[in-house]
Amino acid sequence: MAEPTDRPLRADAQRNRRRVLDTAAATFASEGLSVTVHEIARRAGVGTGTVSRHFPTKESLYAAVLLDRMRDIADHADHLAAANDPTAAFLALFSRLVHEGAVHRGLAEALAGSGFDIESAATAADCDVTGRLRNLLAAAQQDGGIRADIVFADIKALMAGCLSHEEPDRDRIIDVISTGLRTQAAPQD
């Protein structure tokens, strides 16, 4: 008989789940998505049955890894919003999202290809990173730090452009974009 899903996991089950998620995230990021669930279980020091109890399919493991990252980013966005002026918070989140996107692009593409709606899942899990980025953009524009003519579609396109570059060029491009988004951009020669 299956355990009720609303009951909290035992401490050892929580540790195993966390270990599987951390191992899967590191493995997918370094070796790609072709790594087997069996190999992830071996590296995490658990059996494949343990992985399957938490993540019945490889796609559910992909989704859990991405949602876990999105929770971290959402928490980071909330911290940025509370601790910084709106422009600094927006630009810091923009940069973090580009870097996270570069690391986890394969996961996002795999989920999109399988029909998984990561944005809806993130919203349902209260880790709506897109909404937080939109809110920080609006706050930075209202505060006068980011140009008022910038729309969210521009931000998405700029992020995609950043992702088309490799390190260390990506950091230079982020810096150029950050300067261009500001209302006090340096004069052109």
Give the key terms.
single chain; 189 residues; mainly alpha; Arc Repressor Mutant, subunit A; Tetracycline Repressor, domain 2; 2 domains; 9 helices
Topology at a glance:
Elements: H1 11-31, H2 37-44, H3 48-54, H4 58-83, H5 86-113, H6 118-124, H7 129-143, H8 152-163, H9 169-181
Helix pairs in contact: 1-2, 1-4, 4-5, 4-7, 5-7, 5-8
3D architecture notes:
With 189 residues, the chain is mostly helical. The protein has two domains: 8-56, Arc Repressor Mutant, subunit A, CATH 1.10.10; 68-189, Tetracycline Repressor, domain 2, CATH 1.10.357. 72% of the residues lie in helices and 0% in strands. The protein is built from nine helices and no strands. Helix 1 packs across helix 2 (37-44), helix 4 (58-83) runs parallel beside helix 7 (129-143) and helix 5 packs across helix 8. It is elongated and about 55 Å long. The chain starts with 10 loop residues before the first helix and ends in an 8-residue tail after the last helix. The mean pLDDT is 86.
Q: How would you summarize what this structure contains?
A:
With about 190 residues, the protein is mainly alpha-helical.
